[in-house]
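hey so i finally got around to running both of the ones u sent me last week. sorry it took forever, my laptop kept dying halfway thru and i had to restart like 3 times lol. anyway pasting them below in the order u listed, first the sequence line then the C-alpha cell line for each. didnt double check formatting much so if smth looks off just lmk and ill redo it

first one:
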Amino acid sequence: MFDIFKKKEEILVRSDKDIVAPVSGKMMPASQLSDQMFREEMMGQTIGILPSDGTICSPINGTLEMMYPTGHAFAVRRSDNEGILVHIGVDTVNLKGQGFKVLKKQGASVNAGEPIVLADLNIIKKAGLDTTVMLVITEPTTEGKKENFDSIDIVEKNQIINH
C-alpha cells in the first residue's frame, strides 16, 4: 500500500563514450595476468580485475552482441561500433555453466553498470581456476586505437575508465 513512498534505487546514467569496470575488485595491467592470450593482449587492449564479488556488469551502453551459453564471457557493442569482451576467469568455459547465472539475453540493449552475469566465485576457486575478470577492447573506435590506451585509468566498478 505504501510502496509509492519507498525510495527508488539510484540509477547511474552514463554517456555512450564511457567505459566502466565490469566488477569491483583489484585491477591489474595485462602484463600481470596468468593467461598468455590475455597477458599478451592478443585480442586487444586488456585489463584484469581480481573480483571482490560475482556481479559482472556491462562496461558500456550498447547491445549484448554475444552471450556465451556457459555465462563465462560476453561481448557488448556500442553505437559507435566499439566492441568490448568481458571474460570471467581463466579456463572457466570448462565449468560448462556451473557457477554462472546469465541475467541478460544475447541481443538485449544494456547500460554501463547493468548486471549481466552472476558468477559464484567460490565454485570457480574450488575448481582450481583463476577468477580474474578480463575486460578486452577488441574493436576500438578510430579515436580509441591501441596507441591511445596508455592513459586508461584503473577504477572501481561503476566508475568511468577513460580512454
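and the second one:
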Amino acid sequence: MLSDNIKNLRKSRGYTQEELAIRVNVVRQTISKWEKGLSVPDAESLQRVAEVLDVDVKQLLGIEVDVEKNHGEVVEQLARINEQLIIKNKRAYLIWKIIGIVLVCFILFNLFLMVLSYAAFETVTNVESMEVIVEEVDTNIEN
C-alpha cells in the first residue's frame, strides 16, 4: 500500500518525516497523514516524493505502471486509493457516531432513573410526614 511504501522507503533512505517534508515542500503532518493512510498525495506531490526517495512512482504505488506513458493510470490509482480512504473514514465516523448515541442514551437513562428515585423518595418522605401529622391530629383530638 502507498502509505507503507512511503514510510519504508523514507526510513530506508534515512530521512525523518520532517526532512522529507522539507524536500517535498509540505509540512511534517502531511507526511505523517500519508504514512498513516489518512490521506494520499496528489499526483504532483507523489512525483516529488518519488524523486526525493529516488524511486519510480510505480514503486511507491506498488503497481506496474509505465509512468511516462500512462500518467492517467497513476491518477486513477490515486483516485482509487482516495476512494478507499473515504470509505474507511466514513465507516470510522459511523462507528463513533453509534458509540456516541449509545453513550448519550445510557446517560439519559441513568438521569431518568435518578429523577424517578428522587420522586419516589420524596413521595415516601411526604407519606411519612403525613402519617406524623395524622398521629398529631389524632393525639390532639383525643386530648
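quick thing i noticed on the 2nd:
The CA atoms of residues 22 and 83 lie 27 Å apart.
anyway thats it, ttyl
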